[in-house]
Design goal:
The protein is of the alpha+beta class. Helix content is 28%, strand content 25%. The chain folds into two domains: 88 residues, 2-Layer Sandwich (D-amino Acid Aminotransferase, Chain A, domain 1), CATH 3.30.470; 159 residues, D-amino Acid Aminotransferase, subunit A, domain 2 (D-amino Acid Aminotransferase, Chain A, domain 2), CATH 3.20.10.10. The chain is built from eight helices and twelve strands. Helix 6 crosses helix 8. It starts with 21 loop residues before the first helix and ends with a helix.
Length: 274
């Protein structure tokens, strides 16, 4: 997308970032990943609202929501036959220059994502090393921002795979549950779904919010509360919830196998992703 809001489509092999752009050199920017099903992007207003919050927190004057919507429409002008992920990326732009860089991409979902939806995931818990409320009191830590600075998240994913797992749940220094590198944590106690509070600086999950909004009419209560790893082991169900993967049931936690829960089909249906 050009700075004047015009959209220009290019071949995926065409370079679009300057070597001096602050996205590749500093990870200075924000992004959103939207699920595309049956050719339609899911939860566009919620994702654009979160992208706007991220841009504001970072001090980047990026495209308007209408301009992002034009980009989304252009990316999906050709039919998309399979489930896909549409990614919107906003950078501060070239270092030392005014402006921004904004791009969008569409790509098929990976086989791993589809497998994890169907069969569940093995998860390990890893400490972020700071207190649960550290980011809430320190805006420079970018709590609640979907930042391009993903080196820690990717390193955590590699650590999970080295331990024979698929994904990670981050915990605070005192052992409270936070979030996954790309997901929200939800667990069930009886017929109540719980998730950690965003006041700790975790990202406000659009799919977790949609799930909780749909839970009441389906007979499930919801609660925002601090939790611990011990509570996950004792829970009646645990899921990592995200826009692309939906609700993936945690079938193993820190090497301990969990019994499948009958709640998973309902939780997946309530996310609208299955």
């Amino acid at each position: 997308m050009l700075a004047d809001g015009d959209v220009r489509l290019v071949d995926p092999a065409t370079p679009v970032f300057s070597a001096f752009d602050l996205a590749p050199t500093r990870g200075d920017g924000a992004f959103e990943s939207l699920l595309v099903q049956a050719g339609q992007p899911r939860k566009v207003p919620a994702h654009l609202a979160r992208l706007r919050r991220s841009a504001t927190a970072l001090g980047i004057a990026g495209p308007t929501s209408a301009e992002w919507e034009r980009l989304i429409a252009a990316l999906l002008a050709e039919p998309v036959e399979t489930d896909a992920v549409l990614k919107l990326v906003l950078s501060r732009g070239v270092e030392g220059e005014a402006g921004y860089t904004a791009i969008g991409t569409v790509s098929p979902l990976s086989a791993d994502i589809l497998r994890q939806r169907r069969s569940g995931i093995a998860v390990v818990t890893l400490s972020l090393g700071w207190p649960a409320d550290a980011r809430a009191a320190a805006p420079w830590l970018l709590g609640g921002i979907k930042s391009l600075s993903y080196a820690i998240n990717l390193a955590a994913g590699r650590q999970a795979r080295e331990r024979g797992a698929d994904d990670v749940i981050f915990t605070s220094a005192e052992g409270l549950l936070l979030e996954g590198p790309t997901s929200s944590v939800v667990w069930a106690v009886g017929s109540t779904l719980r998730t950690p509070p965003v006041s700790t600086g975790i990202l406000a999950g659009t799919t977790q919010q949609a799930l909780f909004a749909a839970a009441g009419p389906a007979g499930l209560a919801t609660e925002t509360s601090a939790g611990t790893v011990a509570e996950l082991h004792a829970a009646d169900g645990v899921w990592l919830v995200s826009s692309v993967r939906g609700a993936a049931e945690v079938v193993a936690l820190d090497g301990r196998t969990r019994s499948p829960t009958d709640l998973t089909p309902l939780v997946q249906r309530l996310t609208g992703i299955g």
